[in-house]
Amino acid sequence: MEVEQEIAVAAAAHDYSVWGLLMQADPVVKGVILLLVLASVACWAIIFEKIVRVNWLKGGIRRLAKTRSSADKGGFPRKVLEAGEAELQADFDDTPIERRYRVETALRHALKTQIQKVEVGLPFLATVGSAAPFVGLFGTVWGIVNSFTAIATQKDTSLAVVAPGIAEALIVTAIGLAAAIPAVVAYNQISVALGRAFAKGNDAIIEIARDLTEDETEATPQSRRARGDNVEPLRAGKPS
């Protein structure tokens, strides 16, 4: 009879709400939960920031595809075009095909630099997405161990003894999944969006490089002299 009363008192002493279980959790379990919550908050901050940056990048690539002069645009399209124009003005004794390749390479490198700025933070999403379930599993195992310890200490297998530890374990599992799932989904979606943005930007770069090098090839001798190019004047008559 006394044992039943003790069990009833122990059950009444426990708050079985989620918040109550968290407050009564083992310090190690609390530490795991705090770590997962902080990781989840950081992931959501990165996700919202990346949504804004990806939309900014897409808009810049659309503007890049509509212009062929750095003077017409600002922001990163201007930086990309300036890189191609600077490479075009470089003093190299090469063929038109080689010149176009150099310009394409410079434009593509500038575009990759802008995309890499947007990619900052994605490794953290990947890390949380892969590690959070295992961190939650650690908390789960720890909670189950506490449940068995309580059974051994009180020599009782009633629900009032087992439930708190099991509930803590399941809550940690849920928090780990809640941190990991959005991180994995966001990482995949953002990576795909950046890949598509680079593909569209690469198509625009090919067109820009072609236009820039064709303009250079078709430039008059006077305009080429103004830029400092070596121009051999044409002479009438047949070559000897």
Automatic annotation (TrEMBL):
InterPro entries: ExbB/TolQ_transport, MotA_ExbB_proton_chnl. One of its GO terms (cellular component) is plasma membrane. Keywords: Cell membrane, Membrane, Protein transport, Transmembrane, Transmembrane helix, Transport. GO terms for biological process: protein import. Residues 97-192 form the MotA/TolQ/ExbB proton channel domain. Its main location: membrane. It is found in: Cell membrane; Membrane. Residues 214-240 are annotated as: Disordered. The chain crosses the membrane at residues 28-48, 122-145, 165-187. The keyword Disulfide bond does not apply. It is a multi-pass membrane protein. PANTHER family: BIOPOLYMER TRANSPORT PROTEIN EXBB, PROTEIN TOLQ. Belongs to the exbB/tolQ family. This is MotA/TolQ/ExbB proton channel family protein. It comes from Methyloceanibacter caenitepidi.
